[in-house]
Here is the input.
Amino acid sequence: MTEPEEHALPLSRLSLNLGTLGPGRPLPEIVACCRRYGIATVSPWRYNYEDMGAAAGARMFRESGLSVNTVCRVAGFGEADSPPAWRAAIDEGRQILDEAATLGAASVTFIGGGLPAHSNDLRAARARVQDGIAALLGEAQARHVDLAVEPLHPMVAADRGCISSLEQAIALCIGPGTGVVVDCYNSWWDPQLERAISAAAGMILAFQVSDWRVPTTDLALDRGLMGDGIIDLRRLRLLAEAAGFTGCVEVEVLSRRLWSRDLDALVAEIVARFREHC
Amino acid sequence: MTEPEEHALPLSRLSLNLGTLGPGRPLPEIVACCRRYGIATVSPWRYNYEDMGAAAGARMFRESGLSVNTVCRVAGFGEADSPPAWRAAIDEGRQILDEAATLGAASVTFIGGGLPAHSNDLRAARARVQDGIAALLGEAQARHVDLAVEPLHPMVAADRGCISSLEQAIALCIGPGTGVVVDCYNSWWDPQLERAISAAAGMILAFQVSDWRVPTTDLALDRGLMGDGIIDLRRLRLLAEAAGFTGCVEVEVLSRRLWSRDLDALVAEIVARFREHC
Here is the structure.
């Protein structure tokens, strides 16, 4: 495979996943800070807008000139091994789709969920995740919001999301209204990643960056800022672009260390790291 | 795929990987304890015999009637991005092969190693791991010791071993003298695991069990005893047997919690868990 050519990435291609800033920060402060640093696109988690409601959140983003990329995130199907749990997963998925439509997001990320407590039946959980996509697809299409199927790192397969490789995510896509997320942190180790990115041509709905720290001390919340670890982010971005991806490069650095930092200093560093390492 | 039939596993099929007991326990105590609980096969780490030397260790195992399954473990190639580091990896690999031959082990586990410090070039590290297998194969064959290529969990790809899937391990095998390790802890999440186990028919040199705890709090040393987690160990064992595997089921539970436990109580529990969950 020939290596794709490098080119610099303008700040307009940056999307800031608000999970990077963490819970507990008021949305007006986040929005003002994004504007101060020239960020034009964000991806909220539900905790970012649930106090004020999606409509007020949408108004706040719109009035600040911020676009919404994707909303995080739909799960709960893997664990749903009873009819009430299944109905709850459907209801929550539908609600997130409603909110995404209100926010003007093009997609919701779909991580599917993990295993029920005390279960060792991974195949059944994965089958439920597949069924969850089928069950939500009509709801998603009706709202013009895509389901962005996201493989998570295998280390969180049991308790967060049991879609573990990009190849598996691609196989779960069932036509218009479905696509995949390439999250470099979740997938960098995958021996089949290059092949899978090529196979995902035309289906990549989101491309997310953060870095793998050595050592890593927590399975969920110890991601590094771009440049703090060992992932060749630029190469993966170029591979995604070679597969036709032209969207935003979304910074999603889930880390307790970052969550406690001063907001302006953190966003300034994110922008600097984006310019240098993506 | 039809499900393989279940059958009970006799204690003669148990191999105890001594990494389960941890460093710091004198080998004579370990050997005596294994015999008390009817364990006939063990797999040492280098720290188990390095004080006394491999020859004395071999004598101790032999006089106690213990067979040695595999010796852990060959690494260092992924990191070896300079000629001196490469020579050191070759020398260490050769020495472990010598020790394995002395101990009467059928194989050494080959995890290959991770990335050099400050490198983000995963492909180069993987190429070195592949070259390391080729470089050691003649040495291994001369000693009648196989290289058992072991995929590690992707969460330790950067710092321990960058062979991350069974499919990748199979592709690294280059004929007689090479084969693979199926370690349930490292590979349970793999969407292609069933297919890869079938493809490994005739090449499975070792089959290892432990359990994935929810939550998991450490990336290397928080494994659970069989039954403490969410891996369907019996099913994976039956799949390996359907692929022709007839060797020992090796208990390798790397966990700081276990290392501090009373030796007799720990080995007794290992035997009980083996009977119940494998």
